Amino acid sequence: MIVTYFEDTDTLYLQFNQNEVAETRDLDKRTVVEYDHKGHMVAITLEHAKESTEVSDFSFQNILSKSA
């Protein structure tokens, strides 16, 4: 997964995999979701990210399973 924030346009891009995008859907005025040919989500784009997220306070936490 790749998370990219474009400060100059206040755009947050979350890429979940490298699959080829086959379909793009607008969820609302600020949110676009991209899907591959199997219907799996490839990425989400959030315009005006600071209005709907706490992008400036981003953190990442990976929780390992007990079997790992």
Task: Write the SSE topology.
Elements: E1 2-6, E2 11-15, E3 23-26, E4 31-35, E5 41-46, H1 49-52
Q: Going across the major beta sheet, what is the strand order?
A: 1-2-5-4-3
Distance between the termini: 20 Å
DSSP strand (E) fraction? Answer: 35-45%
Supply the helix-strand structural class.
mainly beta
Number of helices: 1
Mean pLDDT: 91
Residue runs with pLDDT of under 50 for 5 or more positions:
none
In total, the number of domains comes to 1
| H/E topology pattern | EEEEEH
Task: Summarize the amount of helix as a percent range.
Answer: under 10%
Number of strands: 5
What gyration radius follows from the Cα positions, in whole Å? 14 Å
Q: Note the overall shape.
A: flat
Tell me about the largest β-sheet. Answer: 5 strands, antiparallel
